[in-house]
Amino acid sequence: QVQLVESGGGLVQAGGSLRLSCAASGSIFSIDAMGWFRQAPGKQRELVARISSGGNTVYADSLKDRFTISRDNAKNTMYLQINSLKPEDTGVYYCDATVQLSSNLPTKYHYWGQGTQVTVSS
């Protein structure tokens, strides 16, 4: 059906930058909201940012100065630019999306990616 694949994670020194990508593929008619979440070791998954199909964005209050979410609807791809990385940004970053599979079927389904690891060294 639909797959979300994150990429762009890795090991980076504090102060560095990363650009994460989330590519959606499969039987897709349209994608509504997409989002980035992260889960640090031993902690619950938390929202980083969300973006609507029209480009409206919402950020976690503590992150909006260093994180920028964007999407390319033509490519069914979402991005997360992270600047001034801190060790506390370490974790697995997941993307999610709400997808309509067919123009004939208005039901929308929610999908998660498998995550990409971000490790920030001090």
Verbal overview:
0% of the residues lie in helices and 62% in strands. The chain is mainly beta and 122 residues long. The protein is built from no helices and eleven strands. Strands 2, 4, 5, 6, 9, 10 and 11 form a seven-stranded mixed β-sheet that branches. The protein has a four-stranded antiparallel β-sheet with strand order 1-3-8-7, with no helix packed on it. The protein is elongated, with a radius of gyration of 14 Å. The model has no long low-confidence stretch (mean pLDDT 97). It has strands spanning 2-7, 10-13, 18-26, 30-39, 46-51, 57-59, 67-72, 77-82, 91-102, 105-112, 116-121.
Give the beta-strand count.
11
Total helical elements: 0
Percentage of residues in helical conformation: under 10%
Strand content: over 45%
Report the principal-axis shape. elongated
End-to-end Cα distance, whole Å, is 40 Å
Low-pLDDT residue spans? none
SS content category? mainly beta
Question: Quick gist of this model?
Answer:
The chain has strands spanning 2-7, 10-13, 18-26, 30-39, 46-51, 57-59, 67-72, 77-82, 91-102, 105-112, 116-121. With 122 residues, the protein is mostly beta strands.
SSE topology sketch:
Layout lengths: L1 E6 L2 E4 L4 E9 L3 E10 L6 E6 L5 E3 L7 E6 L4 E6 L8 E12 L2 E8 L3 E6 L1
Parallel strand pairs: 2-11
Antiparallel strand pairs: 1-3, 3-8, 4-5, 4-9, 5-6, 7-8, 9-10, 9-11
